[in-house]
Amino acid sequence: SSMASVCGSSLALMDAGVPVQTPVAGIAMGLIKEGDEFAILTDILGDEDHLGDMDFKVAGSATGVTALQMDIKINGITEEIMRQALSQAHEGRLHILEVMNQAIAGTARELSDYAPRFSSMRIDTEKIKDVIGKGGATIRSITEQTGTTIEIEDDGSVKIAATDKAAAANARRLIEEIVAEPEIGRIYDAKVTKITDFGAFLQFLPGKEGLVHISQIADYRVNDVRDELTEGQEVKVKLWKSMPRAGSTFN
Q1: Are 128 and 152 in contact (CB under 8 A)?
Q2: Angle at 90 between CA 84 and CA 95, to 5 degrees
Q3: 232: which of 41, 119, 131, 209 is 20 to 30 A away, CA to CA?
Q4: What sequence ranges are listed for the domain S1 motif (predicted)?
Q5: Beta-strand relationship, 247-250 and 208-213
Q6: Cα(171)–Cα(151) distance, integer angstroms
Q7: Is the pLDDT at 249 greater than 70, yes or no?
Q8: Residue 239: strand pairing partners
Q9: Following DSSP, what letter does each residue of 53-75 receive, concatenated?
Q10: Which residues pair with 247 in a beta bridge?
Q11: Alpha-carbon gap, residue 244 to 64, rounded angstroms
C-alpha cells in the first residue's frame, strides 16, 4: 500500500496540474536467503514480507531513485544482493511508470477546478472603501459568501486565496462588480428594491441603484407600477443615462 500511495500521489499531482517534472513510482523488493544462495522477489506481498529476509522499498522516476527504505531480518546483505535488488526494482519501476503513463501522460495544462487557488487583481484606490464597506461589512460578506480569504493593500492590490477555482472566480466577480463603472447601453440583471408611483428603483451592481420610470417599464401604457413589478423581482434593464448626482436611469 505504501508503494501504491507513491504512484497514486504522483498521478494525483499531475492530474491536479501541479508542475511535476516527471512521474514517480514505487515498488517493494523482497529477499529469500539460504546460505550463499538467494532469490530477489519483486513487488512482494504481505506473506513474502513477513516470512522473507528483506523489505526493500524503492521509489523513483525513469531516470533515477528518489527514495529508499529497507528492513532486513538477517545480519546484512552483500553488494551483489543490493545490485540485483536495485536492478530488478528499476525494471519493475519502468513497467509501473509505463502503465501510469497510459492513464496520465503528463501534467495537466491547467490546475484542477478543485485545486486551491491564489490570485491577485488591482483596483482603483478610490474604490477600496467600496470593497471594504462600512465597518468591513462588504468584504466580510464576500468572504463569507465565497469561502475565500481576501487581502487589500493601500495601493489597490487585492489578493484572493480560495479553496477552488469556482470560489476564486466568484470572489473576483463580486469585487469587479463593486468597482465597475456603469456602462451606457449595457443590459444588466437587476433587482427591484423600491416601488413608487412614478417608477421603480433597482439595484444593478453592488451598491449601485437606478430608476426605471413608469413610462419605460413596458411598450404600452402602465397606470400602476405595481401591476408590472414587485419588490425583490429580478429583471433585465438597459442603462441609458448615468449621472453622478442624479443616479442611473433605465429602460
Answers
A1: yes
A2: 130
A3: 131
A4: 185-239
A5: parallel
A6: 12
A7: no
A8: 250
A9: SEEEEEEE-SS-EEEEEEEESSS
A10: 243
A11: 67
Find out whether 133 and 141 touch, Cβ atoms under 8 Å. yes
Instruction: State the cell numbers at 95.
Output: 513497467
**Chain centre to alpha carbon of residue 60:** 28
Q: Quick one: 191 exposed, middle or buried, by C-beta within 10 A (0-12, 13-18, 19+)?
A: middle
> DSSP state, 164?
S
| pTM flag (> 0.70) | no
Q: Where are the beta strands (DSSP E) in 91-131?
A: 117-122
**Over the stretch 121-164, which tens digit does the pLDDT of each residue have?**
999 999 999 899 889 999 999 999 999 999 999 999 999 999 99
Question: Distance from CA of residue 113 to its chain's centroid?
Answer: 5
Give me the sign of the Cα torsion angle 162, 152, 130, 121. negative
CB contact at 8 A, 185 and 197: no
Q: Nearest Cα to 243, choosing from 184, 173, 177?
A: 184
Measured CA distances, 233 to 54, 190, 193, 210 (Å)? 73, 8, 8, 15
d(CA 2, CA 8): 10
Contacts of 76 (CB under 8 A, 6+ apart): none
Task: Give the model's pLDDT for residue 18.
Answer: 81
Phi (first) and psi of residue 139, to 5 degrees: -70, -30
Would you call 13 exposed, middle or buried from its count of C-beta atoms within 10 A (0-12, 13-18, 19+)?
middle
